[in-house]
Amino acid sequence: MKADLDAWLVRNERCPRPFILLGSPGIGESFGVGSHLPYELLHYAPGKLVAVAFLVNERMYIFYLPRGGVPGRVERYTKDDGVERIMDLSDAGCRGYMILDAKETMDLPTCLPTRLWGSIVLSSPNERNYKVWVETNTGSKFLYSNRYHAREMKAYSAWMRRADLAIAEGNAAVRAELDKSWRVMEGRMREVGQAPRYVFDEESYQSRKDEVEWTLNTLITGKASCFLLV
């Protein structure tokens, strides 16, 4: 994405390219994509973007970057009104970027200015979520979100317990407790995946575990096949 932004906004070499990011359901939350992307875009080269739009749960949030002494702000719209606002901004020559959180229960807009604004769709591998988008926006580039590696999870755990690690060298009881704690984390990763928010927080883990069990019990064969290739 960064290379595409530079080619579009900095070097003016080409129009923006639509992206589709595939990952496990909830990648916007589980892997922080939903917060990381707006943050990076809002801090991209000053003056290059006027607005960043984020469509989630039938709501469109449009973040306006500070310009000419005017502070930044955010406006909330319904999906359809948000699309209309984006079209108005595009018609006025304003450049922006769109983030769209695709869900099976929501149709993605098909009349967005994807040749004038950058765009990325966040989706699970279920093709129904983005099929119409791909047909409408030919040339979309697929990106894939990999899960955290076990080594990264262990490093994160070590950082959180760094004070205990400092005294574990000469304390067998602390060392044993750390080993036991990590075995618990490994068990959680086997059950809910390697997403820090669900592994290292007890309440989030229990909630996610219940969701996983419910989904597995209700998953039909057609949907299951979508996730076997990820």
UniProtKB/TrEMBL annotation:
This is Retrotransposon hot spot protein,C-terminal domain-containing protein. The lineage of its organism: Eukaryota, Discoba, Euglenozoa, Kinetoplastea, Metakinetoplastina. Pfam families: RHSP. Residues 20-224 form the Retrotransposon hot spot protein,C-terminal domain. Transmembrane segments: none annotated. It comes from Trypanosoma vivax (strain Y486).
